[in-house]
Structures are given as C-alpha cells and as structure tokens.
C-alpha cells in the first residue's frame, strides 16, 4: 500500500468519525444543524440520528469502493455526499420538530485577567526563516547554476526557462506572497473581538481566546509547510535535487502536514464540541437559523467573529459575513493552485 493510500484512508476515517459524532457533541437544543427542544432530541430525534448514521455508513462504504476502484477524487465526492446527507436529515428534523420557544436575551460584564499568548508567532517566524535561508543559499549558488532552469515536467518532456533573477527566484517570490497573507491572517484572527455568552461570561471569553490562539498557531504551521514545500521546489529548479528526490520530499511534507492537521482538528473539534455544549447553548447569534444556509454555511455580518463553532461537525467554520473570510479563501486557493502548477 502506497503512502498516499495510507493518507487518504486516514482522511476517510477522520471524516467518518467527525460526521458520526456530530449528533452526540452538539448542545441540548441543537440536532444536525437545526434548533430543537430537549424533549424532541431525546425522543423522535434519536430515531432520526440512527437513520442518519446508517446512511453515513452506507455512503462511506460506497465511497471507499469508489476510491479503491476509481481514484482519489472519490474523497472529495465523499465529503460532498456527507454534507448533502446532513442537509437532508436537517430538513427531516425541521419538518418533525414542531414549534420552538423564543430565545431570551441576557447581559454580562466581565473583567478579563488572562492576556493573549504570543506563542503563535514562533511558527510564523520559522516559516519566514526557512524562506530567508533558501534565498541566501540561492544567492550563493546563482552563478554556478546552468543557464536553463527546469520548470515543468509533463508527458511531452521537460520545459526549461532561461536563467534570470526573476525566473530563478519566482517560486520564493510566490512563497513570500503566501507567507505575507498567512501572517496578516494570523494577526487579524488574534485581533478578532471575543464574543461573550452572558450565560457563561468568563468561560466563553477564555474559550474563544484559546481558540483564536489555536487558529493563529495552525496558520503558522501551514506557513512552515508552504515555505518548506516551496524550498523543495526551488531546489529542484536550481538542479540541486532531482525529480525523484523532489517527489519524496513532497510526499514527506504532505504526510507531516496531514498528521498535524488531523491531530489538531480532532483536538480542537472535541474541545469545540465541549464549548458548544457548555457555552454556546444560549448564544442568540449562533442559534438563529436564518444565519445558517442549509445548516452548514454561516453568514452573519453582525457577528464580529471570523470563526464560529460548527453546527454540523467537529470544530469551527468561517463566518462568511465577515470580510476577512474572503482573505482566508484567497490564501487557500492561491496556495493550492500555485503548488499544483509547480509540482505537476
């Protein structure tokens, strides 16, 4: 079994666990992304959850078969099918739940004592350091590098470009752009307003503070991965390493990133689920169904948070009503597209 297969099977397992645990980790007044009464959740809700989980198992088995016989594209199809499955059972819940009580408003004043951690800056600095060392190394070997630089390897052969400073450093220039966006993103996340739940003022304040620090840290970790990946690509273009060594490095880096992300997301997801149960139950902003499109996409320009607890799975999701969410999407798309262009 190839390393890439192991990575995808781990992804299948993580996604399955994520969606399987959804009904058990949501607050008492929430079921599959829809508001319900506690009585409904304990009664009719249990039968709906059992059917939801049976459909989840069926979709997982079908997707695993597609992956084995077709290709890795089935992983993305699997995620789409599971999201549609949640949307379907959410509609079943809404049709069956009956009337709901009106949410009450509460107010609270707290005196925050804990200061925000700055530990998230360490991986960001490390990412910039890797890029700086790569640029310094490139300046030392520039004169000894051949005049033709390999830039693309495909079925029709290798494409070369004439060595110029721009062609020589173009990967690192893109790396600098991505690291700049990630750095700005980390700063903006840590500057997001802490929304206080009046029912649990201090716990909600510190819970969201801890979450922001975690998001900023993982932003730095992604920056280290991107910087390392682009360094490997630069070394290939500079003819320091060959194609086989590049493929080994990329596979190693992707494996490390997947492992870190899986562990982190599972950890923050479980913590987020506890936060949902204990804190978010009386959060009127999150509890309003009109802000949740299909129970999955959160769009609320009145909510200052960039990230909010998910209704339908572990962890958090973007507030697409916040302008910074567009920056996050651009970072992800730009990173993926440029990496595919240079690696393929």
Number of strands: 8
What general outline do the C-alpha atoms trace?
A: globular
Number of helices: 10
Average per-residue pLDDT, rounded, comes to 76
Q: Which percent bin holds the helix content?
A: 55-70%
Structural class: mainly alpha
| Uncertain regions spanning at least 5 consecutive residues | none
CA gyration radius, whole angstroms: 23 Å
- Percent strand equals 5-15%
Main sheet: strands, sense, barrel:
2 strands, antiparallel
Which strand order spans the largest sheet, edge to edge or round the barrel?
Answer: 1-2
Order of helices and strands: HEEHHHHEEHHHHEEEEH
Ends apart, CA distance between termini? 22 Å
What would you note in describing this structure?
- The chain is mainly α and 344 residues long.
- Helix content is 65%, strand content 8%.
- The chain has helices at residues 3-25, 38-42, 44-69, 73-97, 121-141, 165-190, 201-237, 243-278, 284-287, 324-343; strands at 30-31, 34-35, 148-154, 157-162, 292-293, 297-298, 307-309, 316-318.
- The strands form 4 sheets. A two-stranded antiparallel sheet has the order 1-2.
- β5 and β6 (297-298) form a beta hairpin.
- α7 (201-237) packs parallel to α10.
- The radius of gyration is 23 Å and the shape is globular.
